[in-house]
Amino acid sequence: MVARSYSDVLRAAINDLVEHGFDSQERVDRWLKAIKEAAERTLTPEYELERQLRMVLEETYRKLIDRGGILAMHRGIERFTIERVRPALRAEVDRRIMASAGLIRLNRDQMMAKTLQRFQGWATSIPAGGTDVAKRAETRAQIAKPLGLVKFEERRVLIDQSHKMTAAISDILARDGGAIAGMWHSNWRTPHYNYREDHKERDEQIFMLRGNWALARGLVKPGPMGFYDQYTAVGEEIFCRCWMQWFYTVSALYRAAPDMLTKKGLESLEAVRKELSR
Fold first, then answer.
1. Burial of residue 13, with CB atoms counted within 10 A of its CB: 0-12 exposed, 13-18 middle, 19 or more buried
2. Strands, E assignment, the chain
3. Which parts of the chain register pLDDT below 50?
4. CB-based contact 247:180 (threshold 8 Å)
5. What is the DSSP letter of 5?
6. Inter-residue contact 65 to 88 (CB < 8 Å)
7. pLDDT at position 133, please?
8. How far apart are CA 73 and CA 62, in angstroms?
9. Which class for 248: exposed (0-12), middle (13-18), buried (19 or more C-beta within 10 A)?
10. How many angstroms separate the CA atoms of 205 and 185, rounded?
11. Are 153 and 122 a contacting pair, CB within 8 Å?
12. Residues 151-175 as b or e (16 or more Cβ within 10 Å = b)
């Protein structure tokens, strides 16, 4: 016997309550059980979701690390540095898969609870004996709305976790690779992107990494934006698509923000230039 679709079950439940009204909790509970079972059948199985998650995030990893896409954010980093931290980068992939799966599961549970709550709230408002004034199609649409958003939210989670993984991998490389500072890049110019105003204000501003090697040697100093850890990181906030371009040498930082070099840093840079000109 073919199981009835979620839409058919919900329609039957509404018709039954319109006809009989809220004459017993047993009737409502019976339909709540049927609606939940039918709704669960419409959702992508969890094992398939995890397969899709792994596929998306593994492809992001391959693009960044195996095919070198991450180098656009880390000009000047040595390839052996990437190989050295590869185990930590792989661990980040697995961590993101677990986090994404948990978030999707939580979203599903919340949407299911809202659907059942809407049905129960509506069903218990119908007087015993039924009613002639119920707007069945409108009622069905309102009850079904939360569950209808599940697949949309799952896609958003995949996209957001991919951005978060990219940011996390980039951060691991920057810290382990000896980055000095980074320039924030916002996507506020992208059409239809719902950017945060404070992230727009950070666009192309430079943030120093606390405790970096050049700072320890007195070659550089924080600029107007101070240290990176004083702010939320790129990709940290939900659906943030900002990214950071990292600087690894004093000369690279000088080209972007000369005021962030100390007198000692400028002298060191000048000494290197003279040595190279010989």
1. buried
2. 181-185, 206-208, 243-247
3. 1
4. yes
5. P
6. no
7. 57
8. 15
9. buried
10. 8
11. no
12. eebbeebbebbbbbbbbbbbbebbe
Place of tokens 């810290």: 175
Q: In this structure, how many other beta carbons lie within 10 angstroms of the beta carbon of residue 69?
A: 14
Return the closest-CA partner of residue 228 out of 267, 160, 171.
171
Q: Among residues 150, 192, 187, which one has the least CA distance to residue 167? A: 187
Residue 229, pLDDT score: 96
CB 38 within 8 A of CB 10: yes
243-247, strands of its sheet edge to edge? 206-208, 181-185, 243-247
Q: What is the predicted pLDDT for the residue at 80?
A: 84
| Distance (Å, whole) CA 5 – CA 11 | 10
pTM of the model: 0.80
Read off the tokens for 8. 């058919």
* CB-count exposure of residue 179 (10 Å: 0-12, 13-18, 19+): buried
Given its phi and psi angles, is residue 247 left (phi above 0), alpha (psi -120 to 50 degrees) or beta? beta
- C-alpha distances out from residue 95 to 54, 66, 86, 101, 242, Å: 11, 19, 14, 10, 21
DSSP state of 209: P
Tell whether the torsion through CA atoms of 193, 199, 205 and 211 is positive or negative: negative
